[in-house]
Amino acid sequence: MSQEALHQPGVAKPGIGQAAAASGSFIRKHLREYGILLALIVIMAFFQIVTNGILLKPINLTNLILQNSYVIIMALGMLLVIVSGHIDLSVGSVLGFVGALAAVMIVQWDMNYILAGVICLAVGAVIGAIQGYWIAYWKIPSFIVTLAGMLVFKGLSLWVLAGQSVGPFPRGFQLIASGFLPDVFGIKGFNLLSMLLGVAVVAVVLFFGMRSRFRNRASGHDDEPAIFFFGRNFILAAAIVYITWALSTFRGFPNVLVVMALLIAVYSFITTRTTIGRRIYAVGGNEKATRLSGINTERLVFLTFANMGMLAALAGLVFAARLNTATPKAGLGFELDVIAAVFIGGASMAGGVGTIVGAVIGAFIMGVMNNGMSILGIGIDYQQVIKGLVLLVAVIFDVYNKNRA
Amino acid sequence: MATILEMQGITKTFPGVVALDNVSLRVEEGEIHALVGENGAGKSTLMKVLSGVYPHGSYDGVIEFRGEECRFSGIADSEKRGIIIIHQELALVPLLSIAENIFLGNERASGGVIDWHETFARTRELLAKVGLRESPQTRVTDLGLGKQQLVEIAKALSKEVKLLILDEPTSSLNETDSEALLQLLLEFKAAGISSILISHKLNEISKVADTITVLRDGSAVSTLDADGGKVSEADIIRDMVGRSLNDRYPPRAPKIGGTIFEVKNWTAHHPQHSDRKVVDDVSFHARAGEVVGIAGLMGAGRTELAMSVFGRSYGVDISGEVWMHGKPVDVSTVHRAIAAGICYATEDRKSYGLVLDDTIRRNIPLAHLSGISNGIVIDENRELAVARDYRERIRIKCSSTAQEVVNLSGGNQQKVVLAKWLFAGPEVLILDEPTRGIDVGAKYEIYSIIAELAASGKAIVVISSEMPELLGVTDRLYVMNEGRFVGEMPTAEASQEKIMSLIIRSGHRN
Ligand SMILES: Nc1ncnc2c1ncn2[C@@H]1O[C@H](COP(=O)(O)OP(=O)(O)OP(=O)(O)O)[C@@H](O)[C@H]1O
Ligand SMILES: [Mg+2]
User: Fold this and answer.
1) H or E element: which one contains B64?
2) At residue B254, does pLDDT exceed 60?
3) Quick check: B384 and A221 CB within 8 A?
4) Which three-class secondary structure state does DSSP give residue B151?
5) pLDDT at A261
6) In ligand 1, which atom is closest to the CA atom of B411?
7) Which SUPFAM superfamilies does the annotation name (chain B) (predicted)?
């Protein structure tokens, strides 16, 4: 930063207090990202206290992760959809429909559950692709296409299930959602494999963090001040280690957590480091300019929706496995939680802005609030009101921030 | 003469940038006050402070208008006092009609019901005043940039204006329209309306301005008394860039090779009125090392020609062939056109050129992501190196390459567009109004880049409404009018009169 700034006239001159000024302007620029992380910490601390420490108990942590896994999985896809300047209202219904389909295939037709799972994922992708086709190539507003999809698939899951709940699933299928990493070391009451995995993740995260910081410094990228870098990584590492330890003393990592973590890593990489990610942001930022840069904007939007459909299907499988039955009501209103998580995470309605990490944190904020308020026995009525207000405040904060800059 | 406006000690900073540093400006009643300076000198920022876009409290300094201190909290406040600004980036609602746009927020209405009769009548009057022959009901989106500019001016006139601020009003107008606009300013002056004129067209400035204030790097470096053309362009340039600039165009020794790029019998129709030919059976070519110009008036169909060739980005029912190196190539999508070596830098940077909310660093490689990646994964260090390289080479003025493009001055945004297409490494580069809104010094740099590209064997096609520019940088010229090519000549034999007479004669034929 300073190197680049120096040979520019008219740029604030470095001097005493430069470090303070630098971190000041850094905070201003990244207020949103740190703000939301801070908000999550504050909310967790709050519920930790008012629930007398129940929130972070190993059993509740496990629950929290299982409860929110499908929202997080869908938020990954929704982030891409929203960044590309669109919206998908159908994900809740698609989740329900795919769960119903899985139940019918596995329970009623006795199909092998792995085969059924693969078919379900493919069906989800096709559903997304069909919606994406109208949106991308026919320029029909995504709001309308997916609103239609929401109604259609809600209806179809009722039809597939003939209005009944279908279950239970075979043991193997249930393990998707209720299984844990095997305890290969056989220590009683402690899942060492999970602990080792958690520590390995911390090591990898720190290693890549340091490496990219080192490289950025070498090339003079504007980089975050040391205190933020170390502070952020310390919090992250401490959080992972704590969660890992807590989970290991209970039953270890849920299988879903492993799947989720992998997906988060992959989508994070795609959005920040790859050309396709870059293009999706560009499409959302200015579609016409992106097209005139030789980028096939239609295909990108199409793929974004296909991907969303597939993730909704995955979430559908997880959800069905967790409930151990498919009901016609499954997925009702989930799209709103997912969309809210993405916006709380800092994405912009106009497109072109948002991060995977933000969306995941947004989902956790919603999840912790749901969980915490349920522990406290707060009624569903108040819960809705509070969640709505949190969404509003987050977005107001965004807009306020943008106007002030 | 009384002083109408006095701005004192204005300082305005953005994170990391001091855009204005203790600037004072004084405008007398009934004068045309010109504000000049390089791209990013702070001209637009100063005017935004004056008009309340940046409200009182977000800057330091004092503004006195007609003897009273002003603390505007928004643009509505300054408009109430009679300060009307027309921004560099036009601000019209595309899907509304001309009349609706002109009276937006100021509707001719009684009790909330719009009086369309009066609205249209007033609009017609205003349009006549600015010399725009269009129906008041035409949607703004169906107008070219030049005409939109006139609508903006008509809109300003619809309010009670005491001080009119025009931020580069003529940058997208052709010479006749610019002339008419300047004439308009002189009329306003006679009627006692003061105006502040920002422009990079120094000939206009020295023609009409009474006083010239020169900004450089956020400070007012001089105020020149220009009454009646007393100040020469050279004087202004010297103050603007801090040194004198002897030549406006870099010297060139063209080495012209074989034909690279050919367009044959190209025809394109209007997307909405598909029976209307916007480009009518046009053929042209460009050779290695050659700079070819396309002259014509606003609306001649030059942009439409270029965009329809560039991946059918404009028009319907397109026919014709494009050849590269003696072989027909597929240009049916932008991607294929780029792959064939053809690039097009747009005249409308805001809607077609840039992802405004994104950084300089990420805008530059957008048309050539493979240049900073292994095809899948982006190498951020390479990206940074590329951005820095172009920042140096074409002197993009910014606090860092991580600055968002939307916060750059207009001229610097234009440079980012150029950088993007230079990085795409084309064999044929079509430049549509490449120096629109660019200061004299930077123009020279852009001409040098054109010359360099040509010297390295590329073919360059320049579309420009500024004839001196075309005469200065091209080797050969085509003249386009109403969708057809009406003349071709080596630039050495061309003159403005010759081009104009070709256009006029072709116009008479039908
Ligand atoms: N919102 C903003 N945030 C950060 N920097 C800004 C912002 N607006 C303007 N700047 C910076 O302030 C400086 C002055 O910009 P300004 O638009 O006033 O230039 P200008 O003289 O009008 O140039 P041009 O002739 O190119 O239009 C530039 O360096 C620009 O990058
Ligand atoms: Mg400007």
Assistant:
1) strand B60-65
2) yes
3) yes
4) helix
5) 92
6) 26
7) P-loop containing nucleoside triphosphate hydrolases (SSF52540)
- Of B385, B444, B433, nearest to B410 by C-alpha is B433
B416 CA to middle of ligand 1, Å?
14
Q: Closest approach of chain A CAs to the CA of B490, in angstroms?
A: 31
**Chain A partners within 8 Å of B331 (Cβ):** none
Mean pLDDT of A37-57: 90
pLDDT at B191 over 60: yes
Residue B287's φ and ψ, nearest 5 degrees, are -105, 165
Residue range A70-179+254-404 in CATH 1.10.3470: yes
B16, B334, B375 ranked by CB distance to A12: nearest = B16
Residue B320's pLDDT is what? Answer: 93
> Stretch B289-314: mean pLDDT, rounded?
91
Confidence grade of residue B1 (pLDDT, cut at 50, 70, 90): low
Q: Is A118 exposed, middle or buried (0-12, 13-18, 19+ CB in 10 A)?
A: exposed
Q: Is B378 on the interface with A (CB under 8 A)?
A: yes
For residue B223, give the H/E element and its range: strand B219-225
Residues of chain A contacting B380 with CB distance shorter than 8 Å: 216, 221, 273
Q: Domain spanning B3-241 has what CATH number?
A: 3.40.50.300
Least confident of A199-203, B92-96, B193-197, B474-478: B92-96
SS3 labels along chain A: CHHHHHCCCCECCCCCCHHHHHHHHHHHHHHHHHHHHHHHHHHHHHHHHHCCCCCCCHHHHHHHHHHHHHHHHHHHHHHHHHHCCCCCCCHHHHHHHHHHHHHHHHHHCCCCHHHHHHHHHHHHHHHHHHHHHHHHHCCCCHHHHHHHHHHHHHHHHHHHHCCCCECCCCHHHHHHHHCECCCCCCCCCCCHHHHHHHHHHHHHHHHHHHHHHHHHHHHCCCCCCHHHHHHHHHHHHHHHHHHHHHHHHHCCCEHHHHHHHHHHHHHHHHHHHEHHHHHHHHHHHCHHHHHCCCCCHHHHHHHHHHHHHHHHHHHHHHHHHHHCCECCCCCCCHHHHHHHHHHHCCCCCCCCCCCHHHHHHHHHHHHHHHHHHHHHCCCHHHHHHHHHHHHHHHHHHHHHHHHHC
Burial class (CB in 10 A: 0-12, 13-18, 19+), A280: buried
Pairwise CA distance, residues A87 & A258, whole Å: 27
Chain B residues with CB-CB distance to A290 below 8 A: 355, 366
What's the burial of A259, exposed, middle or buried (CB within 10 Å: 0-12/13-18/19+)? middle
Residue A20 pLDDT: 58
Query: What is d(CA B150, CA B146) in angstroms, rounded to the nearest whole number?
Result: 7
pLDDT at A4: 39
We find that the CATH architecture of domain B259-358+423-509 is: 3-Layer(aba) Sandwich (3.40)
- % chain B with pLDDT above 70: 97
pLDDT in tens, B357-395: 899 999 999 999 999 999 899 998 899 999 999 999 888
Q: What is the mean pLDDT of chain B?
A: 88
Q: Does B213 touch chain A (CB under 8 A)?
A: no
Judge if pTM exceeds 0.90. Answer: no
Note the pLDDT tens digit of each residue in A117-160.
Answer: 999 999 999 999 999 999 999 999 999 999 999 999 999 999 99
Q: The tokens of B388 are what?
A: 């820095």
